[in-house]
Amino acid sequence: MSERECAMLSALQAFAIGHSSLEPEIWRSIADEAIAGSAPAQYMVAIALEDLGDRTQAREWFELSAAQGHAPALAKLAMS
């Protein structure tokens, strides 16, 4: 796993801990899907990173999702 992927998983785990209704296993699955190229999963990763205050990485994931035409990511980028 790359350094970026490890950092993303750590951020998602921190996010999951702060949101008790979300299981870390679910976030791991989302992260795996995002790494594999799923636009909706990339968007969810971006939202999680944004909530954690990492706007730089969040923007990167919004851009990956938007590049695939994911409407919520496109809208988010348009508002920023």
Q: Which shape, going by the Cα principal axes?
A: globular
Q: Please mark out the parts with pLDDT under 50 across 5 or more consecutive residues, or reply none.
A: none
Mean pLDDT, all residues: 85
Fraction in beta strands = under 5%
Instruction: Give the SSE string.
Output: HHHHH
Biggest sheet: strands, sense, closure? Answer: none
Rg to the nearest angstrom? 12 Å
What is the number of beta strands?
0
Structural class: mainly alpha
Termini separation: 31 Å
Portion of residues in helices? over 70%
User: What is the quaternary state of this protein?
Assistant: single chain
Total of helices: 5
How many domains? 1
Give an account of the 3D structure.
The chain has one domain. It is built from five helices and no strands. It has helices spanning 3-18, 24-36, 39-51, 55-66, 71-79. The model has no long low-confidence stretch (mean pLDDT 85).
Topology:
Elements (H helix, E strand, L loop, with lengths): L2 H16 L5 H13 L2 H13 L3 H12 L4 H9 L1
List the defining traits of the structure above:
single chain, 80 residues
Question: TL;DR of this structure?
Answer:
With 80 residues, this protein is mainly α. It has one domain (3-79). The protein has helices spanning 3-18, 24-36, 39-51, 55-66, 71-79.
